[in-house]
Structures are given as C-alpha cells and as structure tokens.
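Hi W.,

Here's what went into the run:
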Amino acid sequence: MPPQRRVLIVDQLSETRETLRSVLETHGLRIFEAGGADEGLTALRDERPDIVVLDMEETAAEDHLRCEALVAATQQQQTPLVLLGSARRAPEGVAKSDVVRKPYHYGPLVRKIEQLLESSQRSAA
Amino acid sequence: MPSLFVIRGSDQGHCFELRESSTALGRDASNPIQLHDTEVSRRHAEFRLGTDGCMLVDLQSSNGTYVNGSRVESHPLTSGDQVQVGRTLLLFTGAAPGEAERSRVNVVVGGAGGSSNGSRIVHTISQEEGSRALAPEGDSQDSPWLARARSNLQIMYRTALTVSHTLDIDQLLSRILEMIFEWVDCDRGCILLFDGETKKLVPRARRTRQSTKSDQTMTISQTILDYVLERDEGVLTSDAQDDSRWNPAASILQLGIREAICVPLRGRYDSVGVIYIDTSMSPQDVIRQGGAVEKFSEEHLKLMIAIAHQAALAVEDTQYYSAMVQAERLAAVGQTIATLSHHIKNILQGIRGGSYLIEHGLSDHDEEVVRKGWDIVEKNQNKISTLVLDMLTFSKERDPDLAPADINQVVGDVIELMNARAAELDVDLQWSPADEMPTLTFDPDGMHRAVLNIVTNALDAAGDMIDKRGRVSVRTEHDSENKLLQVIVEDNGPGIAPEDREVIFTLFVSRKGGRGTGLGLPVSQKIVREHGGRILVESEEGRGSTFTLELPAIPPNSVSTTQAT
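Here's what came out:
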C-alpha cells in the first residue's frame, strides 16, 4: 500500500478548511491545516506536505506579501501548489493551470490535486 | 413646501417636508421629524406654519434649540436659516412665494414676432468689466458712489450667502431670480441652462412680477442669446428708437417699450447658461410719464453680470455635486455588489462541498460522510438566511413592529440558539436575565436580530482567545427610574483597537477577517435606533468588550400613542 499523501490547506476561514478537509479525506489524503501564510510556512517546513492548497482570495492585502513568500517556498521545495482564487492575483511564476477559480466544483479540484500528486511522484521516482 | 434638510448629524441627508400646520421634532418615534440623536430631547421643538411664514418653537428641550448659532425659545424662520438641535444641524428652506413658476417654464427662444426683434443693443459689458462693478470709478470718492458701492456690496454678499445654501438646482435658480427681482425693477425673468447632454439652452426657471400677466409666453431673441454667448458679454437692449428721449413713434404708443438685460452665466471654465430679465412700459405709462424713461441702466447691467457670475459658480458647484453624488452612489453600489458576491460565493463554496460529500457518501453507502456533508450544507443555509435577513433589515426605512413582549424571553431564545456555536468555539456562554422584567413595548423580531448579531460577535471575539478560555456573559436590566431597558453583552476577547472603534458601525467594515459580512453591527444599530435607543461600546484591548443595547422602556398601555405615527 502506498504511503498516505499529505496535503497542506492554507485558508483563513476555518469553515472552508473544514469543508476541504472532509472532501479530501474521503479520497484517502492526510490533511494539515494552516490559518495564514506564516502558519503555512511553518507547516511546510515541519510537515513536508506533498502538495499545498492555498486560498489567496481570503487574505488581506497586507498578507499578500507573506502569501507570495509561501508560494516562493513551495516552488523552492518543488512542492506542487494549487491556488484558489483568481489568476489575476496569482504571484509570478505560478502557472495559470495551477489556479482554480472560485467558486469551484470539488470534483475537478480533487482530480487536479490527484493529477499533480501523481506527476510529482513520477518525476521524483 | 417649506422643508428641513439635515446637513450634519446621524440623519445627514434626510429631508423633512413641513406639510402640517405644526410639525414636531424629537428623538421619539412619535415625532414626524424623528432624529436619531441622543442629545435631542424626546419632544424637542415644533415648527408652526402660519400665514406669515414658519415659526420654530422650542418645547422646553434639555439641550435647547439654536437658530444660526443663537439659542431661541421661539423664532420665525427664513430660507437659509440653520437650526441646531443636539448634534444635528438642519437647513430650513421656506416655500417660494406664489409667483415662482417652477413647474411651467414657458419661455420661447427666438419666437417669431417677438417684440425683442426690433430691439437694439444699448450697452454691452464684458465679464471682466462687470466684475469691476464694485470698483471705484476713477478717483471719485464722494458719498453717492460710496453709498451705491455699499449697496452693491451688500447685494453681492447676500447673493453669495443665498447661493451657498442649497444644492438643489431648481431651488437655486428660483432663489437667484427671487433676489434679482428684489434688486432690479424688472417684470419678468428667466434662467436658461445648457442641457448636459444636448448642449442646448433649456429654460429652467421663470419668474414674473405679480402685477404682470404670467400666462404670457416669454420670448427671447435668438440673436441676443447668440451675441451674449459668443462674445461672453452682457447686453442691455431696448426697443425704443435711437433717441432715448421721448419719441413719438406710433409703435411705442401702441406697444409700450420693452427693455431687457441678458447676461451670460459665466462659470470657472465655460458659460453654463444665461439670465434674462426684461421690463415693459405700457403706452399709458409712457404717456403718463411724459416719455420713455429708461428703467434699466448700465449700472443694472454691471450688477447683473456680477450676480450672474456668482450664480454660475453656484450652478457649477451644484452640477459637480450631483455628478459627484451620482458617482459615489455608483461606486457604493459597485462595492455593495462586490462585497455581497464575495460572501455569497463563499457560502456557495460551502454548499457545493456539502453536496459533494453527500453524493459521495450516498454512492459509497457511508452514512458518516453523508452526515458530514449535511452539517456543512445546513451551516451554510443558516449563513445565507442571516445574510438575507440582515440585508432586508438594512435595505429599507421601516418602523419597528412594536408589540408587548418580554425581553428576557427574546434574549433567552438567542442564547438557546447560540449555545451550539459557543460549544463549538469552546466559549462559556453565561446568561443572567433580570429578576424583575415587566412586559414592555418593542419589536421582538427586530430585537432578536439586534441581540443575535452582538452575541455572535462576542462569541467570535472570545473564541479567538488562545491563552485563556473564552467567556461571554449576557444580562438584561430594567432601569425603572430612567425608563430604560438594557441588554448587556460582555466578552473577554481581544477588545477593539482605538482606531477601529470609530468604524465598527460602518457598513461592510468587518474586523473579523473573512468571517464577517460587515452587516451585523450596522443592522443592530439600525434596529436599536429605530426604537429610539442606542448601542454603547466599552472596550479595553486585551481585556474584552462590553456592548450595551439601550432602549426606552415603554409600558404596553402606551403602545397606541406610539403607533399613531
């Protein structure tokens, strides 16, 4: 049995995190949560997730820079990233295909996460 | 109709028309003019309309009634008077006398057969020259000049004062004409403004002296208008023949003499329109006076140019103001839509998540997943209902639906509803109803909503605490001596930063991150104010906040009088 894949959810709203957690858990993923970019950076370092799901829309303008730092850190660690929100606000270096516009449907989001996990596993192998 | 416009205070922007012979003003909802100002007495003052105008009478208010800065017991009002009660400043506008014709502006430009066709220009004065109306003529320093200059100065001063008091363009124009009629002996006058879209001159206000027949169509020569606008000069015209002295021409004996002054409304950048006034002398008057006496002089023309410049600036200001109001309104609408869309989007996101889980759970026969999905759907359903109810409360002016009710019961219901949320956030929610709480008159549904929003905020604030357990205590009090009903909600949350205290009641401002809609507190405040009450806030950073909803305690038997409004 392959090891359980680890997903880090970064979103300011606890209720959104909870919904995403419930959905992703039904797909056998292990979830870590962070309520902000700083917390996200710590979790990225400590938990070494296989993928990061970040909602940038909910963060205030002053936190935007911190979010960009988090995005840079995931890129440095070559951790796949899914950005929730609008592509316009996405930091540089984030592929448009990695941005999921809100309001999204959970089916396609889950498929995208699974795809990214699969391809990163293949490239690591 | 006389009216009062609130230019400062919590009711800023409201306009009250004085329809009845007496109209009361006060904090209580029973007043036709209800002000949501705690420094205004319940019944503060009264406006009484009589044949000779409007009288303002103070009803022994505790903080007094002021007209143009002086405290008054009773005082006749004239247009432009500023009435101050508590922290509210109102601008009084009297009804224009019967002669003003705002609804029917019967003016024709360049109509055929108009008597002005035969007119010739007697004087023209450019804008710059007109602006020297108050400048001394040469070195003459003698008293007739001084007296005239003083009178002109007074006219200009009063013009500036009058036009600065209104932002309603029709009212402004009719006031300008009213003033001109006071100072210039003319029979008819009208103001034409350029239409914003068609760029054509459109008659906007007309006035005739009572002695003149007002049903006549007023004809203004297109040639004169073109002359005035093209050259940017004011003109004085007369249809009397070349010699200004008595001329026995038959036409004058038949038609009389018509003199007219037409000046451009020269604003900061461009002309916004023209002012036209004329006067006619009947053949009888010509004979009686033994000749054609000029009623209009160069002096009048100069004065008209100066008045027109002032008026044009005011017209421009009014136009800018309404453009600005319109732009602000559009911006506010845009912001409202953006904010609401954002909240609705998040709620939709939740419902989709819940549905996804339910679908998954059903196909996997996993009841636990279905249950999880259902909880999420239900939570978001509550959110959307709160949002809709808050929006509805905020969207319209409404009177509270007053009924005899028990505030302990209303607050008790809120506590029961919020217990689950408190448990979820691990907050200790305490409830101590007042031991003796009579049945009082208020809107139970409205107060439910007002208290619910405050308690929700308190729970969120207390739930944020990491270093200590959150605690929210709610209690009710009845102060029979001061006839007050209070609901006090206290939390031990992070408190409100001093710079935020000013804005917490502002619509769409939320300090709860993405959780808040920014509707809760404004809605609570609106409901409490509709009851004639207020919300008091005390907060200490790091210690917590106390919100007190204070309402007047109205016993049930006085309901009928309160509802009679």
